[in-house]
Design brief:
Length: 444
Amino acid sequence: MSDGRGRWTSRVGFVMAAAGSAIGLGNIWRFPYMTGKSGGFVFLIVYLAIVFTMGISVMLAEVVIGKAAQRNPVGAFAKLGGGLWPLVGFMGLTAGFIILSYYSVVAGWTIAYIFKTPLGLLNYSDPKELAEMFGKFVGDPIQPIIYHAIFMALTVLIVVSGIEKGIERWCKILIPALFLILIVLIVRAVTLPGALKGIEFYLAPDFSKIDTKVLNAALGQAFFSLSLGMGCIMTYASYFPREENAPKSVIWVVSMDTLAAFLGGLAVMPAVFAFGFDPAAGPGLTFITLPAVFARMPLGTLWAVLFFLLLFFAALTSSISILEVVVAYFVDEKGMSRKAAATLFGSMIFLLGIPSSLSLGVWGDFKIMGKVFLDFMDYLASNLMLPLGGIFISLFVGWFFWDRGLREATSEGRYPLSWVPLWKLVCRYFAPLAIAWILISGIW
């Protein structure tokens, strides 16, 4: 590319990077406890139906915008739509900035637990004791911020290295490593005495549990998991060669993301049931319940380190995609160097993350709309900005960019797309309405 932005060296590079963007803590951390909380297999099949209809359609919409414009989200909407459309890109960029600030804090916890585990964490198997230890750790005014700084520094270093030598190279290493660790953990989990109860809970159908709560949870998880609405996939698609098969790549990305979520549940649920713990334990399932499970396993330290390493890899591949959205804007539109943009805005994101960390401890009494700072940031970005971004991206492709978008999706007719009617219906009607429902549910 003559503008020096960089490009993926192959379709595999794009798929690995985009899958890395989608595969994050939402798959390994959030999906298992959401499944446990929402009825097991029933939640799983509803989730799969949504992902392979609406999720795949909205992701293709992001891809064709980025592929057509070869720009960041703000520049893409300015080039292809003009008017007020660039505001959609700005909203995605802002959402990514906010999300990464607290996402990095949580990701820092995974680094801490990689080191804490062999240093005696698993000497405790009582969830109450582990909960007290976790609360003491996240409430500390110094430790979590140090790990937050380490995680952001690693994210900046990869993004500074560029598309080919940084993001693509590392995603080609981290994504296979992530799946390898998942498979090893699954083998260990399903061979535990009593693991069958967890497998039955995860895979046995009970259609009586289908209700609006399960539908809402699956909708929210699908869009959260696929990194839709903030421009990550759009930005990655802007480095995508125009002649490549976009729909095939999107199918690969969505399939890998879904497989990672499914395997994440298969690694967690059998182990949780084998030792009689609650599968609906919420976020504490990761940092409280699972350490209690590992403490009771033979070679528990090894399995725990592998699990938190898995979480770290998933978080890192997502974080570099979020930072890349911000960096791409300042490189494309403001002429900054990649190194300067990544360093400056990575540092600013780190600083914004400090109040999120402190809000779980010494700043816990300071609340906005009844929420501590971290929860408010998550509410603002995940419950408001991301759904709005998803709605406008779908409407833009479905109504204002359809003919050009279809040409981009098929590379001027080179690749047939059998599900064009479904894609059109989803972009024009189903996705905007479904995401609007998520938005309204999130507000209320």
